[in-house]
Amino acid sequence: MITVLCYPKCGTCRKAEKWLKENGIEYSYRTINEENPTYEELKEWVPKSGLPIAKFFNTSGRLYREHNMKNKVKSLSEDELISILASNGMMVKRPILLKDDIVLVGFKKEEWEKSLL
Q1: Residue-wise pLDDT tens digits, 1-42
Q2: How many domains does the chain have?
Q3: Structure pTM?
Q4: How many CB atoms lie within 10 A of CB 65?
Q5: Which residue range(s) make up the domain with 85?
């Protein structure tokens, strides 16, 4: 089963949902700001994604700027960064798509097509 972590007001999340529906892909929806990813989940997802931890941050978000994360991402340990991500779902880039061993961060149509179709 596919799970998608989204924020309802996020335009990119809405595009991702529309794409899933257009392609007949069933998924469960998890609201990222109400049920943010846990430390344990993120610790598992980061290596599965093949992405550096920095790619999990919502760099365009208010919290990212307020907490001066641009500099912290470069200097803090991965454990410290995962703890920050787990503390507030609004700090996390979205959507996040989970399916078996696939973890996709953000909505890139080509990447989703390659992984899901």
Answers
A1: 999 999 999 999 999 999 999 999 999 999 999 999 999 999
A2: 1
A3: 0.95
A4: 11
A5: 2-116
